[in-house]
Amino acid sequence: MGGSFVYGRLALGAREVQAIVQKALTEGRRSLLEPEAKAICIEYGIPTPSFKVATSAASAAAFAGEVGYPVVLKIVSPDIVHKTEVGGVMVGLSSGAGVESAYLRILESVGSHRPDARILGVLVQKMAPESTEVIVGSVNDPQFGHTILFGLGGVFVEILKDVCFRIAPLEEHDAREMIREIKGYPILGGYRGFPPADQDAIVNILLSASRLVTENPQIEQMDLNPTIVYDRGAMVVDARMLLSG
Ligand code: ADP
Ligand code: MG
C-alpha cells in the first residue's frame, strides 16, 4: 500500500467525517448516533461488522438477510445512550421471523421505558463472534489535549481501571507500548479458550483512533467498547462519540 494512497484515503475520511459531525451539530446533537459513529470508524479503516438501519420490521428482516445471520438489533435514538438499559438491544437473532418479532419487542420496550424518546430506527448488525474484548477510547484533556485510552473490556476497565493513556498523535511504538503496559496484558496471549489476540489489529485501531481525533478535533470523547479481538483482526461492536460545541 503506497503512502499517497494512505494519504488520499485519510483526506477523504476526514471530509466524510466532517459532514457527519456538522449534521449532528446543526441538529443540536452533541452525541452521535451509533450508526454515525460506526460510519466514522469505517472512514478511518476501523473495522465494524456490516450494518444497516431499518425503519420497519419487514425491512429489518430484509437487511438481516443482506448483512448475514446471526444479527443483533439495537435501537437508534438521539435520546438513548445506554441502549441495553431500556431493552433496546437484542442479540443472536438467526431468522427473519426472529428479527421481525425482536424489532417489535425493542420498540415496545423502549416505548415503555422512555415514552418521550425520538426513535429514528433500529440498527441491524451482523453479530461479531465472541472473543477477547478490549476498549479503545479518547478523551480531550484540558491540559494535554486529545488523549487515547486502551484497556481490556468488561471488569478490567469497569472495576480494575486497568487502562493506559497516551497523548495523541500516537506513533506505532506508542501503540505497541500501550498494549504491553496494561496489567492484563497476558490475557491477550489467549485466555478461556480464546486464541492469542492479533496485536497488530489493535495497533491499527489505536493509530486510526489517534488520526481520527487529531484530524477531527470536535470529537471530544470516543468509546469503542467493546472492540472484539481475534487471532486475525478485530472489530468494534459498540461506538460512542461525543462532540464539543
Ligand atoms: P449499550 O448501549 O447497552 O452499551 P451495545 O451496543 O454495547 O449497547 O450492545 C450491548 C452488548 O451487546 C455489547 O456490549 C455486546 O456484548 C453485544 N453486541 C452488540 N453489538 C454486537 C455485535 N455486532 N456483535 C456481537 N455482539 C454485539
Ligand atoms: Mg455498549
Break the fold down into its secondary structure elements and pairings.
Layout: H1 3-26, H2 34-43, E1 51-54, H3 57-67, E2 71-76, E3 89-93, H4 96-113, E4 121-126, E5 132-141, E6 145-152, H5 155-158, E7 163-167, H6 172-181, H7 199-215, E8 219-229, E9 234-236, E10 239-243
Antiparallel strand pairs: 1-4, 2-3, 2-4, 5-6, 5-8, 6-7, 8-9, 8-10
Helix pairs in contact: 1-2, 3-4, 6-7
Question: Care to describe what's here?
Answer:
The chain has 245 residues and is an alpha+beta fold. The protein has 7 helices and 10 strands. It has helices spanning 3-26, 34-43, 57-67, 96-113, 155-158, 172-181, 199-215; strands at residues 51-54, 71-76, 89-93, 121-126, 132-141, 145-152, 163-167, 219-229, 234-236, 239-243. Helix 3 packs across helix 4 (96-113). The longest helix has 24 residues, at 3-26. 37% of the residues are buried.
